[in-house]
Prior knowledge:
By secondary structure, the protein is mainly α. The chain has 21 helices and 2 strands.
Amino acid sequence: MDDSSSYAPASNNISPKQLAAWRLGRFGYVVFLAVWIIGFFFWLVKRALLGRLLFSMTPAGFNFVDYVSFYRCGKLALFFPHLIYDRVAQLAVYNQIIAPLHVRVDESVPYVPWMFLLEAPFALLSLPSSFVIWNIVWIGFSLVALIAFIHGLERRMPHNFVLAGSRKWLFLLAVFASWPVLHSIANGQTTLLMIGAIALASLYWLEQKDIACGLLLSVLSLKPHYLLYLLIPALAKRRWAVVISCLVATAVFAGVSATAFGLKAVIGYPAYVMTLEDDPVYSSWFVCLRCPLTYIAGAHLAFKISIAVYSAAMIWIYRLWRGLAAEQTAIGLAVTVCSMLVVSPHVHFYDLGFLSVPAALLLGGAVCDAGGDWRIKRERLGLITALVAFPIVGAFAFVITDLLPVQSVLALIYLPLIVWIWYCSMALLKRPVDSASGGTAGE
């Protein structure tokens, strides 16, 4: 399984020159990923040495990374627990954090109450130290979770597992070299925490460890629109232990938050966050269906359409899972995550790091048949091409958005790619399952 050419085109079907070209292409891909990710961290170090790790200068003024807002959540939780959603208090704490810099208006705080609890321990440190520790913790968690996830898939799909041996490390390198993940690190976002949670929840789903699966899914309550989507398979398959454990854990988060911040903060959160969503600038940053709809129909109508599409797609996913065979579960999970990223009304492009989980599920058994032949049909070729190209597209997006500082260009780059991955996954789901290949991991 560790032979580096075991998933190259079968040697009896191609010439030595073609095999050499395939190996050269793979080597070039590894070099590209390594140079890209090393260059990114050199860029971070350079910013740190210039004293600009947490902000950048733009023609409009200072632009702070997202983590500054998270850090503010921690400070509010520690020193103003009953004012976490008070805009005056939010602005005052923000200005204390960024002093001697000062802003008159800052971005809203759309986070659930328990996000303030999560950040509170990190807010005990200085802002730069907190940012570094935050990233170290969640990079480590996501890395361990993805390794455990891949090993778990390999146990369930031992024949022709594409990510076995050294290819596992190539896959992880590609994940951490993708621009959504790197951008998440640079901004101190929660993406890596959620990648780890989705990966482990998917593994525990496949292993029928329902309570553990539900507890991991409860982490996604930090962004409830994702949690609602990923609970659909459990509802459709009547796996009530997943649903109950997830809801109980989320209720505990809410209860602790109500104790710390007051019941009003928890009960009033849905109404509070809805006042922030109807924002044309805010919604133009997304990479989901809502972004192009904002330019076509306007922000208010686009939000309503997005909610309607999101709700209708939930019904479609439910019906899909009701008829899903056990051996199609892995592809079903991949389709669910891809659908969630397309139709959810609030998807920033750093959340596209979630695609690492569908990529592992699909590459785990969607490429080779039992004989090891390179039998790639249209959807398989399309799927592999999209997943391999994802980090390369990220480098292109980084350059384009630097030259054209318009956030909506990210939707033009990434949304078609996600839709294509979804389409190829659906095509695989509709094909007869080759049980000999270990093509999917059953329930």
